[in-house]
Design goal:
The complex is a heterodimer of chains A (289) and B (93). Helix content of chain A is 27%, strand content 17%. Chain A is of the alpha+beta class. Chain A has two domains: 195 residues, q2cbj1_9rhob like domain (Jelly Rolls), CATH 2.60.120.620; 76 residues, no CATH class. In chain A, the strands form two sheets. In chain A, strands 1-8-4-10-3-2 form a six-stranded antiparallel β-sheet. The longest helix of chain A has 17 residues. Chain B is mainly β. Chain B has one domain. Chain B is built from one helix and four strands, in the order ββαββ. In chain B, strand 1 and strand 2 form a beta hairpin. Chain B is elongated and about 55 Å long. The chains are: A alpha+beta (289), B mainly beta (93). The interface between A and B is medium-sized, with 37 and 29 residues.
Chain lengths: 289, 93
């Protein structure tokens, strides 16, 4: 097991549950970025069979293996999908210079109705300025039930995030998040390494839960500024995205509540009373009489 | 006789009202003058659907309001409020 100091904390995991991603800028050192670029250029990054434990996938010497073995990266992996998850697949995405169009908006793989989730790590080994494109993600889209490219007609959303970043940046994604490769208008080829990992353990309190207090689950006054001003788990999970529809935004909070219950095992947890109200179906005839 | 081509604007609004706020957008230009693609803009072309009407776009599709399928009441999926607009432009070639 990785040292606890490298695991995610509860607020980071809550942000992942709400927005479907976590971002770590310039996490990988320049020397390692350059070694990975050399492996990409040499075509020497070989894929293991789907379902292979990650620890067996990149035997030394492998720059990609060194990157994945960084304690910070092992910490985020273990916090979300547990120790030594299964390798699903990897890809070195290359966007040609001065290309004509972006990739269509999509969710990866096929429609997936599980609460259990895979993660995808995206690694940007070189600087990605805006004109080079970069992956575009739609925060909070991970629970929408769609099938891959069915959403390709969506070109832009309020609040979408184009990944403009420095070399060594890591993005951790819920498998369902909507994304695409933006158009590369620069004169330079763009690279991005992606790996998908499947959990081998029940995803229950895998992160550092030292900051997970019982206070987090207590009901609070709702529809008040005072409640919303407290930056706690409930507030993180209740925050909408600019592209959410007015009413659909409330259902997205319900999606997050269900995921937080799944991840913590606390089936009474709620945000803004959304589920507790629906679960209130008294059978006490004496009080009703 | 001048040739006419269609430009299509798709606005994803915040609710079923045409004057609600734009949340997402797509543009397709049949004249070939502009080439729109995924992730090419962070700023919507209009604040509301009504603002597009006032700028000369003709609405050609309103989204249907259908009740959710049983057991799908809390499921989120595609954007629900997809309004489609058109403009017809002359081209000279």
């Amino acid at each position: 097991m990785i040292d606890k100091q490298y695991l995610l904390n509860s607020k980071q995991v809550a942000s992942f549950v709400a927005r479907g991603f976590l971002r770590f800028d310039e996490l990988v050192a320049p020397e390692l970025n350059e070694a990975v670029m050399a492996e990409i250029d040499a075509g020497s990054i070989k894929a293991a069979a789907a379902g292979t434990p990650l620890s067996q996938c990149y035997p030394a010497p492998s720059a990609i293996g060194r990157m994945l073995n960084m304690p910070e990266i092992q910490g985020m992996i273990q916090s979300l999908v547990g120790p030594d998850p299964l390798f699903d697949h990897h890809a070195v995405h290359v966007r040609q210079a001065n290309e004509g169009a972006a990739q269509g908006m999509h969710g990866d793989s096929i429609i997936d109705t599980r609460m259990h989730f895979d993660i995808q790590l995206m690694y940007f080994p070189h600087d990605v300025p805006l004109d080079m494109g970069g992956t575009l993600i739609v925060p909070g889209s991970q629970y929408r039930r769609i099938n891959e490219m069915d959403i390709a007609r969506y070109q832009n959303f309020l609040g979408q995030i184009p990944m403009v970043c420095k070399a060594g940046t890591i993005l951790v994604l819920h498998h369902g998040i909507w994304h695409c490769g933006r158009q590369n208008k620069s004169n330079t080829k763009r690279y991005m390494y992606k790996i998908r990992l499947n959990p081998r353990v029940r995803q229950l309190r895998l992160w550092n839960t030292d900051d997970l207090e019982t206070e987090n689950a207590k009901h609070k006054p709702i529809f008040t500024r005072e409640t919303n001003a407290v930056e706690d788990i409930q507030t993180i999970l209740s925050r909408g995205e600019p592209w959410f529809e007015d009413a659909g935004a409330r259902l997205e909070v319900v999606n997050r509540i269900k995921m937080w219950r799944f991840l913590t095992g606390d089936n009474n947890f709620d945000v803004h009373y959304w589920l507790t109200r629906l679960e209130n179906m008294p059978e006490n005839l004496q009080l009703a009489a | 006789m001048a040739k006419v081509r269609q430009k299509v604007l798709v606005l994803y609004l915040g609710n079923s009202a045409l004057d609600s706020n734009v949340k997402g957008w797509s543009l397709y230009d049949g004249t070939g003058r502009d080439h729109h693609t995924t992730g090419d803009s962070d700023t919507p072309p209009y604040k509301t659907g009504l603002a597009a009407l006032r700028d000369g776009w003709r609405v050609i599709q309103f989204p249907q309001l259908n009740p959710p399928y049983p057991n799908m009441e809390y499921t989120t999926s595609f954007q629900m409020y997809e309004f489609i607009f058109e403009q017809l432009e002359e081209i000279h070639d």
